Fold each of these.
Amino acid sequence: DTGVSQNPRHKITKRGQNVTFRCDPISEHNRLYWYRQTLGQGPEFLTYFQNEAQLEKSRLLSDRFSAERPKGSFSTLEIQRTEQGDSAMYLCASSLMGEAFFGQGTRLTVV
Amino acid sequence: EDQVTQSPEALRLQEGESSSLNCSYTVSGLRGLFWYRQDPGKGPEFLFTLYSAGEEKEKERLKATLTKKESFLHITAPKPEDSATYLCAVQALAERGYQKVTFGTGTKLQVIP
C-alpha cells in the first residue's frame, strides 16, 4: 500500500516564475486537501476536493493559486508569479472519512 | 471561528521522564480530534483520532485522552526517538458539508538521553 506521494520534494524558483506541484493520494481516498506550512506553525488549510469537485478554498488563497483534480485522481497546485512570501512547505493529504494521511510535502523556496 | 491552542510550545524531557502535552479547542460541532507527529522536513504522521469526551487511545508510549474542551497526549517513559513536533487538529462540520480541519501550532518535544 503506497501512501500519499508528492512531487517534487524540493523546488527553488525565481520570484515571478510559475510553479506546479503534484499530489498522488491514496488510491481509494475520495477527499484531498492542500495545506501550507511555515516554520514553527501548524499546517494552514488551502483547499479541499471531494472526488474531482473543489468544494472549499481558503479566503487566504490569492488568485495566483489554482488547484485541480481531474477525474478525481491526482491533484496539482499551481502558483503563478511567485513571491518570496510563498516560500513554505506545501502539504497534500487524503482521506476517506475521518483522519487524513499526509504526503512528505514539497518545500518551495522563492529567491 | 474554530481555534486550537497547544501548550507548551516546547518541552524538553530527560529520557524516562513522563509528561503531558495539552490541546485546548473551541469548535462548533466537533467531529473528531486528531493527533499527529511531525519530524523536521517531513509531513505529519497520523497517530490517533478521538471522537467523544472520555475516549482514550494508546500506542506504545503514547496515550491520548479527550474532554469537552481539551485533549492530552501523555508520554510515558519517553525515549530520544520520541523527539518530534506533536500536532493537534480538530475536525468540524462547515458549510456545504465540508468537514473543516484546523491545526494547532504544535508542541516541539525534545527527549534528552
Amino acid sequence: AQSVTQLGSHVSVSEGALVLLRCNYSSSVPPYLFWYVQYPNQGLQLLLKYTTGATLVKGINGFEAEFKKSETSFHLTKPSAHMSDAAEYFCAVSAYLNQAGTALIFGKGTTLSVSS
Amino acid sequence: EAGVTQFPSHSVIEKGQTVTLRCDPISGHDNLYWYRRVMGKEIKFLLHFVKESKQDESGMPNNRFLAERTGGTYSTLKVQPAELEDSGVYFCASSQRPGSYGYTFGSGTRLTVV
C-alpha cells in the first residue's frame, strides 16, 4: 500500500532563505508524486508532479522537487523564500483504485511560515 | 474556463441534522472525486465518479454519507445524520482523464458539526 510521510508539520524560514520541505513515500509500484499548495481560504493548487522521465521536476512559483528512488524521497525546494509562499504544502502519491483510475494518498501537510 | 466550484464554503450544523454539499466540476470533466480532511489528519479519498456512475467509493466512512452525481454533471454529498466526527473540510476535484494527472480541486467546504 502507498503512504506518504511529511517530516515537520511546521517550517519557518526568513524571506530570501532556502525552503526545504521533506516528503518520503512508500509505494510498491513506480510512484507518481505530487506537491500541492493551499493558500488561506483557497483550494488545493498543483505545484508540480513527477510521473516518469527527468527526476528533477520544476513547478510553479520557482519551486522544484527531486525524485530519489533510492531514498524514497520527493523533497520540495525553493532557493529564495518570498512572503507570498506562506501556505500549507501537501505531498501526495498516486494509488491504484481499480482499472479505471487512481486516487491520491496525501501526507499530513507542512505549514510554511515566512518572516521578514 | 471556470474552475471546480463548491458550495457552501462553510456550514455549521447541529449533531443529528442533515447537510448537503455540492460540487460543480469543470465542464467536460467526466471524472469527479471527493476528498475529506478531518482536523489534524491527512486529506483522504472518499469516492470517484465517472460520469454518473460511482467508480470507487471505498473511502466513504459509513452509510451516513451518500454521494450522487445527477446526469454526470454536478455532484452532491449528503451527510445524514451528521456526527461530531464528520467535521472537516470536504474537497471536490475533477479531471478529464481518470487517474491523478490532471486533478483540479475546488476550494472546499468547511463543515462544522456542533
Amino acid sequence: AQSVTQPDIHITVSEGASLELRCNYSYGATPYLFWYVQSPGQGLQLLLKYFSGDTLVQGIKGFEAEFKRSQSSFNLRKPSVHWSDAAEYFCAVGAPEYGNKLVFGAGTILRVKS
Amino acid sequence: DTGVSQDPRHKITKRGQNVTFRCDPISEHNRLYWYRQTLGQGPEFLTYFQNEAQLEKSRLLSDRFSAERPKGSFSTLEIQRTEQGDSAMYLCASSLETLPDTQYFGPGTRLTVL
C-alpha cells in the first residue's frame, strides 16, 4: 500500500528565508505526486504536481518541487518565503493501481516570523 | 470558472442525529471524491464517483455513511446516527476523467458532533 511521510510537523522560517518541506513516499512504481496548501478552516489548494518528465516542477506562488526516484522523495522548495505562505502543506500520492484516490501525508505547518 | 462548492460550511449536531452534506463539483468534471480530515491529520479517502456510478468505497465508510450522485452532477454525503468520532472536516474534490487526474478541492464542511 502507498504511504506518505512528512517528517516535520512544524517548521518556522524567517520572512525572506528559503524553505524546504520534506516528503517521502513508499510505493513500488512511479507515483503521481502532488503538493497542496491549506489555510486554517479552508479546503486544499493545489500548488503543483508531478506526473512524468522533468523531475523539477514549478508551481504557483513561486513554489517548486523536485522528484528524486532514488530517494523516494518529492520535496517542496521556495527561495524566499513571504508571511502569507504561513499555512499547512500536504504532500499526496496517487497511482492508477490503487484507483484514483490520493494518499496524503500528515502535513507540515509552516510558521513565518518577521 | 467556479470552483468546487460545499454546503453547509459548518454543521453542529447532537449525537444520534442524521446530517447531510452537499458538494457541487466544477461543472465539466465527471469525477467526484469525498475525503475526511481529522485534526492534525491529512485527508483520508472515503469514496469516489465517476458520473453517477460509485466506483470505490473506503473501509472508513461505515454502514452509517452513504453517498449519492444521482444525476452525475452534485453529490450528497449522509451520516446517520452521528457519533462524536464523526467530528471532522469533510472535503469534496472533483476532476476530469483523465489518467492521471488532478483533484481540485472545495472549502470543506466542518462537522461537530456534541
